[in-house]
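Homework-ish question, so no full write-ups if that breaks the rules, but can someone show me the predicted structure for this set?
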Amino acid sequence: MPSSNGFQRFTGTPGYIVSGPLVDAVNCAIALERPLLLKGEPGTGKTVLARHVAEGLGMPMLSWHIKSTSKAADGLYVYDTVQRLNDSRFGTGDVADIRRYIKLGPLGRAFAAEQRHVLLIDEIDKADLEFPNDLLRELDEMRFSIVETGDEVVARERPVVLITSNNEKELPDAFLRRCVFHFIEFPDVTLMKKIVAVHHPHLEAKLLDQVLIKFYWLREQAELRKKPSTSELVDWISALLRAGLPPSEIEAHIPFIGALLKKEQDVDALQRHEARGGRYPAKWADLGPRYNQ
Amino acid sequence: MFLDLFYGLRAEGVPVSIQEWRALLEALEKGLHGSSLLRFYHLARACLVKSETYFDAFDRVFLRVFKGVEGALGDDVTEQLLDWLKDPKAFPELTPEQLAALQHLASDELMRRFLETLEKQTERHDGGDRWIGTGGRSPFGHGGVHPTGIRVGGPPKSRSAMKVAEERRFIDYRTDQALDVRQLRVAIRRMRQLTRSGQTTELDLDETIDETCRNAGEIELVFRAPRRNDVRLLLLMDVGGTMEPFYEPVSQLLTALHEERGLRDFEAYYFHNCVYDHVYRAARMWRDDALPTGDLLRRLDARWKVAIVGDAAMHPAELLEPNGAIDPRRTSSTPGIRWLHRIADHFDRTVWINPEEAVNWDDWPTVGIVRRLFPMYELTVDGLGAAVQALVGARV
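A: Not a homework solution, just the prediction itself:
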């Protein structure tokens, strides 16, 4: 990896298209040794980024997928009391050694590891409101102590921490102050073409244009409750390719709409549009000046 | 100049602290901006702004602070200048005097240094890659050029930071005006008070250990009820008449509330202009849908949180006089204000959410009367957040 000025730099990987600002944000987080908080519409590749940062930096990756029941302490370590009780009752295992029942969580493992890791804390907003606050000190100082044994786990190599949020809950200010923030914008047409090319390298240009025109048109429709995302576009193109539909088929219709729209009301709205005799745009010019190529 | 950015952001209500400012300085010292104003823009935003809702404010401040700089200097900002500008060593213990001094520095001396460096830069015509002679520090590969062979999405060269800021693409994310169902849900989600009740399904580890010890090591499992939200919400909505223009935001609020699974109980009723003897289960407000308001108050106890959505804009007689209801079929000898009093007294916490902008509230005398009974909030994400706080937050 290119390394200059004392820190490793992330420059992107062939399998993932990043925008310049995002590269800068990742490098800023690495250089400042602060967590990078990523927000953005669902399906803009927040989670995937972590994998590619790890790949790009040549570091192993640990992920911690947050659920509504996740507690901050679980990320550090879990003391398996029930197992210990059970062992003591049935005389299996060495109950005297409490360390056997301490299991490090993803954060704990990233700290304890010899090598620098990329740590992904995925969908932090799923957890309880207090969750991020409970991690402040650990993320700041990159150390914690295990109460049961008195051991202290200190990070040998500060992990590169990436945190994603889907904006379902607000995050506390104290937590935000410690992060570098990046909001992944929805890709524009040029970037989207590159993204699609990574997934479908042999797509005909004509088909691609038709597909993107329909896709961006759909996203412009104010009635839609859930706008289709990048990952849904990629899936939709897969479906179209499997079915072997010619571009002309997509000019006037939107086949396999279920791949793009996931809400019944949205599909209904589209059907109403068709019933009213509404057309779909077939040229970029139909989408208005913003999309002039 | 740089401090203008900091204070400008604070003046716009963006929560920026010294901690974040120092992070930016550290990043600049490490040369992460690569001598390009555009990358500086992104870097500053990543370090200082922590929510896309403030991106628009950031754009506005950035434009104001750096306007003109770009015109004179193009898109290249030399590292020298930035290094010198920030002076990170002075920062950790900044007194107000020091801050003032720094601000003073930022005006003329800085500009001079800036232009000086830039002159040198044009001589070299290559964007200023090397400044070894003057800086005494090795400035590593900056220049804003991404190493070759990397796929970079945006064309960083063709767009200047000013253009980016000028586009103000994040205007839709502002919380003080934009509303969509998703944002509303975020605000509503804070409406919660956790209590333990219901089925005992969760293993209570502490109790289990205690009981097991008491039981001389025979495992004794103890279960408890999981924590769940105890908030019950009653929503009363004004429909028709002056509320027509607000159909969209109000229906979004209703959608968001119906989608919110966290509430323990949720009931919604409709009224027209003011609450009288009856409220209605459906917005069409037919006789069949009617429910005596008195029954509602008897059935729901004081723990219910009440949110009334309406513009409170009506003729004073509709609010204050007997038989004031505008619809002759629904006459009621009790004036509307009495009913509002009863609601405000009966329930512990009530709020009034007004879809009309706060600046227009004074246009209607009835709004003033209603506001004496209920704390009133705008139907914006911020207003709704404050209303939720008033319903479940600590009392002030």
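Now go work out the reasoning yourself. Hint: Residues 1-5 of chain A have pLDDT under 50 and may be disordered.
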